[in-house]
Amino acid sequence: MSPSLIAEFLLLAALWGASFLFMRVGAAELGALPTAGLRVALASLFLLPVFLVRGVWADFRLRARPILFVGLLNSGIPFALFAFAVLHIPTGLSSILNATVPLTGALVAWVWLNDRPSGSRMLGLAIGFMGVTLLVVGKTGFAPVPGSTSPMLTLLAMGACLLATLCYGIAASFTKRHLAGAHPLATAAGSQLGATLGLCLPTLWLWPDRALSGTAWAAMAAVALLCTSLAYILFFRIIAQAGPSKALTVTFMVPVFALGYGSLFLSETITPWMLVCGLVILAGTALSTGLVSLRRT
Question: Which of 5, 35, 64, 125 has its Cα between 20 and 30 A from that of 287?
Fold first, then answer.
C-alpha cells in the first residue's frame, strides 16, 4: 500500500479504537440505547451532504429499503450492544471481542451464502472461537469496570459484544446478497438514517431526565463525527483502493488503540490473559478470512 493509504489505514484503526472510549463516556450519562440513538442521529446529520454527490441520492432511492434495514443491523443494534457492554467490562476487552467480526462474518457466509471455507479457514474458525471461549472462561482474569462487579453482568456484557459481531456478520452477507453494486456513500449515509429511524422511539423514551454534561456531549459528537461518519468514508476509500481483504485487516489494529486509550484515559488494566486470548482470536481470524493460509510444501 502507498504511504498515504497506510496513513488512512492507521487513522481508521485509531478512530474505531477510540469509539469504545467515547461510548463509555457517553453511556455513563445517557445509558446504552440513547447513546446508540444519538450516535447514529448525529452521524446521519454529518453524512447528509454526501447525498449531493452525483448518483448517490438516485442510488439510495433505488435501494432504500435494504439500505435502511442494513443500517439497523449494521449500526443501530451493534452500537446499542457495545454501549451496554462498555458500562460493565473494560473498553479494551470489548475491542478484543469486536475483533471477531471477520470470524463471525465468515461463519455467517458459510451458513447463509454457502461460502464454504477451505481447510485452513475452517481451522481458523475453530482457533478463533477457542480464543473467545478462553476469554469468557477466564473472565476473572481482568478487573471489571468500577461499580460493575456482578459476574452475571460481566457475562452479559461479553455476550452483548459477541451478539453485536454476529449482527455485523449477518449485515455483511445481507449486503453482499442485496446491495451488490450499491454506491458506497449511499450505503454509508442511508444506513445511518435507517439506524436512526429504528432507534428513534427507544432513544426518546429512555432519554435521561437530567441535563448532560459538556463532556458527554463532546464524546457523543466525537463518536458520531469521527468514529462513524469519517470512519465510514475512510473505510470505503480503503476498500476502493486496496480491496476488501486488506481493508479487513484494520480489525486487527483496533484493539491496539482501544487498549491504549482505555489504559491511558480510564485507568483500565491490561492483563496477560486478555493479551494471550486476543492473539489467539486474531490468529484464528487471520486464518478464517484467508489473510493467512497454511500451505503444504
Answer: 5
> CB neighbours (10 Å) of residue 64?
14
Residue 20 in contact with residue 84, Cβ under 8 Å? no
pLDDT at residue 297, as a whole number: 45
Question: Among candidates 162, 145, 152, 164, which has minimal Cα distance to 79?
Answer: 164
Residues of the chain with pLDDT under 50: 140-141, 143, 147, 297
Distance CA 103, CA 109 (A): 10
CB 175 within 8 A of CB 187: yes
State the number of CA atoms in the 13 A half-sphere of 49 facing the CB: 4
DSSP SS3 for 209: coil
C-alpha cell at 106: 465468515
Rounded Cα distance between 116 and 106, Å, is 9
> In whole angstroms, what is the distance from residue 90 CA to residue 105 CA?
24
CA 2 to chain CA centroid, nearest Å: 25
DSSP 293: -
